[in-house]
Amino acid sequence: MSRSASDPVPAGPPARFAVVANPENRRAALFADAVRAAGLPAPRIVPWERVLRSGGAEFAPDEIVRLDSPGENTDVDRLVRDMPDPTRVEGSARWYRRFVRAVRGLRGGVRLDDPGELAVLFDKRLCHAALAAADVPVPWSPTSGPDAVPVSGWDDVRAAMREHRMPRLFVKLAHGSSASGVLAVESSGRGRIRATTSVELAADGSLFNSLKVRRYEREQDIAAVVDALAPDGLHLERWLPKASQAGRAADLRVVVVAGRATHAVVRTSASPLTNLHLGGRRGDLDAVRDAVEAAGGRWTDVLAVCERAAACFPRTLCVGVDLLPAVGWRRFAVGEVNAFGDLLPRLTGLPGSGAEGLDTYAAQVTAALRHARPGTASAPSTGQWCLGRHADEEHHAQHPPCAEHHRHHQHRTGTTHVSA
């Protein structure tokens, strides 16, 4: 029988939550509000700064442990990147190593996030390869999978563009987030080239994150940016021409909780970068549904693509999937899967998702109480929440977890066709 967020929570002793977070951050406050709204005590907040300085943290066996983003805190950023200015782009490889080490140092409790899966989610090359191996549609990439090529600088990017006939591509930091270090590169047959990015190149060669999206049209400037990013690791993807809404490029952020697509928002932009903090705007989700159906597709199939992507990470309760609609709204590909992609304030659940009337945090609290609550039949014996054991069995029989799914499919990239 299918269960929804409105179903009764199993009886038992009151659940206790703990959150590894930056205490002052609104993410921690929003999740704490959701926990209290469920009639539970406020969660214990374990600061990231303490975890990083001490090399880990201990949790009681009955604590349900959530990890939240370590971002937007200058002291924490300095601990993980060793950069004097938090707006600097460089240092993401160091951030990745220290973040993964800190996560592996957390001990006890019932975890809603898995250290191994987080290590994949925060490496775009590994994440892309996992999705492609499971037959989840993704843009083609020369930097992931068994035939991945290293990229040590702009010369390698140029070579990949020629060899693989990629006049338009995205260059991404392997361990970046929030569009940091992302360049949308396009070239013409006449030798002209330009890159759209939020990276600001200083006179001394340093790179800074900016809220202003800019274009570089001199190849020497583009090369300088890419060469400075390369030591932290680069991921390349073919540029998928996206569908538009009201004349603006459009994509979707879909939040998947316990294997179900529960929340979705359309992001539109006049530039290739749709991130809301870079000038992107929320679009019309109803219009997207209408466009999909007018093209002969089904909205449920669109959401199923996101659920298949999330199923690649069965021991992580919640992920945010960036879904790229191709021109015409008939084909879709997964751009990225985000471990901390649930910050969508005041957005309530999709009709039929089981999270109607709930924001992303309330949906996660409800799912955690049902699937990971200590002392109930559905609680894991290993201290780790797992989709394959605790999520809606009826629903996921139709969309098997990634690890099982990829055994029966060949590695492929591209887009998936949704049809009636």
TrEMBL record:
Coiled coil: none annotated. Residues 396-420 are annotated as: Disordered. InterPro entries: STM4014-like. It comes from the Bacteria. Residues 405-414 have a biased composition (Basic residues). This is CalU3.
